[in-house]
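Morning run. Coffee first, then this:
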Amino acid sequence: MKIEQLYTSCLAQGAYYIESNGEVAIIDPLRETQSYIDKATKSDAKIKYIFETHFHADFVSGHIDLAKKTGATIVYGPGAETTYKIHSAKNNEEFKIGNIIIKTLHTPGHTLESTTYLLIDENGKNHAIFSGDTLFLGDVGRPDLAIKSDLTKEDLAAMLFDSLRNKIMTLADDVVVYPAHGAGSACGKNLSKETIGTIGDQKKTNYALRADMTKAEFVREVLDGIAPPPQYFAKNAMLNKTGYDTFESVLKTGNIALSSQDFEDMANHEDALVLDVRPQSDFIKSHIPNSIFIGLNGSFAPWVGALIKDIKQPIILVVPEGKSQEAVTRLSRVGYDNTLGYLEGGIDAWISAGKDIDTLESISAKEFANRVKDGDLNILDVRKDGEYTNSHLEDAQHFALDFINGHMNEVSKDNTYHIHCAGGYRSVIAASILKARGFHNLVDVAGGFDAIKTTDLPTTDFICPSTL
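And here it is:
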C-alpha cells in the first residue's frame, strides 16, 4: 500500500494518491491532472476511483478531466447532485482498491454532502481517514459555505458536531488524519501548519473535539470570529458541481505571447485586466499604468479569487521570464480561465516600445518612523482584522485587503497614504488597486509591520482579558 500526500502550499491544499496492487484512488485532485496519471503509469497501475470529499469552494478540482482521461469513477458522498456522471455513495459503502478498502463515512456539516473516507488496510485495520474539510489539524471546517441550502450556518454547525462525535471521534487514536487543508486556508480559522496527524492528537489539541463540549458550545465556538468567505468561494463550488473547460484548453488560450502593441490594444479595447505577477520589488520600480499587482511569490491564487470579482474577467499578464504557464495554471486553479495572453519580453519590451510606465514610492521602516515623528501621516494598515487587533500603530486607519473593494469611500484622493501590511506583499497589492482607481499619493512601507516593530514607534497591543 502506498499513500502520498501531494500538498500545494500556495493553496494550502492536500490531494492524495493511494495505490494498492495495481489500482489507484485519487482524493481531491488539483485542476492539472497529468501528474497523477504519470505516477500511476510509472507504477504500471490504473486509476480506478476519484474520491471527492465535498464540493470544494476554494479551488477547482481536477476530477472531471481526470475521469475523462482515465475512465475512473468519480465518487461523492450521499446527496451530491452534479450535471456530470458520478457515483453518489451511501454511508458506510465500501470501495475496493487492490488489497485495501475505502469506506464512505458521511460527515455533513461543512457542507451537506461532506464525506470522510476511511482507509482499511490489507489486514482489515482502520489505518487512516481522508477528512476533507470536516476535520483539520487544529480546527474543523467552517459551516457557512453550503451552496443553495435552506439550512443556516447554525444548523450545519450542529450537524458537524454530530458528525465528528459519531463518525470520527469513535475511531481509534492511532488512525492517521489526512485533511484537505493546512494553515493559510480560508476554509477554517485555526488550522495547524502540520498536514498529517492522528485522531488521538486531535482529541488532545483540537478545541472542537473537547470531550466535555456541549453542542451549543461547539456551535458558538466554531462560528465565533469566522470571517466572511472570499467572494470566489461560491463560484468555485458551483464550477465543481456543474463542470468547467478542460485545463488543456485554458492553457492553450491563455499561454500566448503578445507584442507590446497587441497587449496595449487588449487592455484598451477589450476591457482586459492587466495583472502583474512579478515580485513586488519589480512592480515598485516600474509597471504598466493601471495594472494590478498580485505576485506569484505569495498566496497568488487565493488573492486573485478574493480581489477580482468577475471570475470571467479577461486577464492579460505581465510575468517574470518563463513563468507564463505557471501563472495561467495557478489562475485556473481558482476558476479564472479567461486569460488571453502575456506580454512578450516583459516590462523591458514595454519600455523599449516607448510605452508609458508608472512607479510606486517605497520607503524603509526607519524612514517611515522618521516621517511619523516629523508630522501627522495618514497610515493605512491592510492586514487582516485579527492581525490588526493583536498589535497596530496608534492612529492607523485599518481595513483588510480582502475587502478593499468595499472600503473605497473611506480613503480620499487628496490625501497621501503610507500603506503597510505584515511583510510588504499585501501592501503593494493594495497600492496597485488604489492607483488603478485614481489614488496616486501612496507610499509603501517596505517590510511592513514586521519591520516597523523594530523601530521605536509605539503600538497598541491586545491584552488577553484572562491576564488582567
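Residues 245-352 form a domain with the Oxidized Rhodanese; domain 1 fold (CATH 3.40.250.10). Good start to the day.
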